[in-house]
Amino acid sequence: MYTLFHDVIHYILGLATLGLRATCSLPQGDTRQPSGCPVNEKRRPGFGTWRPPWSGQRASIWGERVLGDEKPEGVERTVFSFTRGQPAKEIPEIRILLYGDLPKNKENIIYLANHQSTVDWIIADILAVRQSALGHVRYVLKDGLKWLPLYGCYFSQHGGIYVKRSAKFNENQMRKKLQRYINAGTPMYLVIFPEGTRYNPELTKVISASQAFAAQEGLPVLKHVLTPRIKATHVAFDSMKDYLDAVYDVTVAFEGSVDDKGQRKEAPSMAEFLCKECPKIHIHIDRIDKKNIPEEQVSMKRWLHERFEIKDKLLIEFYDSPDPERRNKFPGESVNSKLSLKKTLPSFLILSGLTAGLLMTEAGRKLYVKTWIYGTLIGCLWVSIKA
């Protein structure tokens, strides 16, 4: 019952996040830089910055609308603007393009993906919600994230597993936590980023160290991903092999994340994603049946690296193909990911309604601040003992 409660909370928070996408551009003709948006980026005219509804400024919420064949861009969202009586406007939105296997049914799975941005967390939610599994998403996280205000404690209570790197990795602790979830019959959509840190082409020392490690281990050197680490993946699979249905091997590429010279640059941050600085996200999914995954650690290490070699080839084709027609897409047919308004609007309204109810009164604002302060302190104490 306790886990079910956290699944419901995660479901509401996840859908609210997917439903709330702010536009950063100012009204047409206004040359000011929008607050909170990346500098030195082109702004799209005609949209308002996000402001709280009670501030008298422009604010909007939107849900997705699938357009007909006459609109080649495929997907737009209908915007409901609460702006001094101005009519709603339709604006182009980020398109999510899916390739490969497209699972529809709920499954107990391990989700393995390349890691390059904080947006990767949202992408896991984007895929899970299409299987009605958003409340089942749990993450393997870097240990330092447990000190995040409120969320550090929440992730742990919801089934997140904090791990340390290299020799500090506590294998027994991870196995015990996973076994508790198995014994309780907890649905499992376990997200792991085997690289252990984000790939950033500007951090050349990190990339060089990763490539040197691969060469030292006798493994092929990778270009667009870091050398994957095996420990968390092996422990997760070994602990849950009789409980799992499959492993999802997910490769993500952000269109537009190259500079004027065609060189790859840092992937969009969460703020840039919310400000619509990424026109398309391409997601390639391989569903791998558990019987096709080696169980012994040395064999699995080689298998995992081979999966990242496949990712690297996909990303080389995406970013570096000499043929312009083959760049900015993965091989094969793509499917526009469609998410209806009814999937996100209720959760958005619940979350924004509760927040607005607190912030519109003095007593509510005090409670809001105290919740953050005392909740953070209690949460940090809790994770220092339990996580």
How would you describe what is shown here?
The chain has 387 residues and is of the alpha/beta class. The protein has ten helices and eleven strands. It has helices spanning 2-19, 119-129, 151-157, 171-183, 204-216, 231-240, 270-274, 297-320, 341-359, 362-386; strands at residues 60-66, 75-81, 90-92, 95-100, 109-113, 137-142, 161-163, 189-192, 246-254, 280-289, 335-336. It has an eight-stranded mixed β-sheet. The chain starts with a helix and ends with a helix.
Key features?
Acyltransf_C, alpha/beta, Glycerol-3-phosphate (1)-acyltransferase, lipid biosynthesis, 387 residues, phospholipid biosynthesis, 8-stranded mixed sheet, 11 strands, acyltransferase activity, transferase
Sum this structure up briefly.
With 387 residues, this protein is of the alpha/beta class. The chain has 10 helices and 11 strands.
